[in-house]
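[Automated response] Your request has been received and processed.

Submitted sequence:
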Amino acid sequence: MNAGNGVLKIAMISVIAISAAGQDTEKLISESDCSSCHAMDHQVVGPAYNAIAKKYGGQSDAVDKLAAKIRDGGSGMTPHPKLTDQQRQDMAKWILSQTGSVPSGAAGGSETYPYKLKDGTAVALDFPLFIKDQAPKVTKEVFHGYQLYNSYCYRCHGTDATGGQLAPDLRHSLAVGMMQHDFLSVAMSGKPEKGMPGWAGFLTEDDVVGIFRYVKGRSLELISSGRPPSAQD
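Generated structure:
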């Protein structure tokens, strides 16, 4: 009886240890720059974790391949040589276990938000610029984007997204067709050859989406220069 209890106790300790290790790995991933470019169930800059798991699924050397990818980077991915071999192996195993997530937005039918431009034409966005029935008060996400833009981006791209001498006018970039995914990719990965740093690991996906939404509003002249009114006013 005592021997059986001992075996059960050891088994319980093992399960707890495995669970704790998984939580530690998930925390390591969430606190690293991984979450700036990857999400669980949708593409940000790089593929979703569940897409990576599907790609490597069934390969006997999947853990070693993915751990090496984490170490060396490549194809726009930042290398992570400072992580230990064990950390990279644990991260690879955690990513490969993410096989059950359903891609977000798979059902489609997302809401659109129509706005009238100064020239009388109409435009429909897939996100709201203003608080419902409170225009010109911008949403919390757009206001956060304004704050971030005028804290970090203005030095090269101009205050209030008015254009600068060191980098392109982002209003023009969006006006000629730059989409949110492209904006995220450039912001997170940077363009070292042009002197632009990558913001992965410093700004989150939500941060950059907020900046994109703010600049989109500026490019359409729906948001005026200066501090936009918000819910806190």
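Summary generated for your ticket: The beta strands are 113-116, 122-125. The first strand starts at residue 113 and ends at 116.
If you did not submit this request, please reply to this message.
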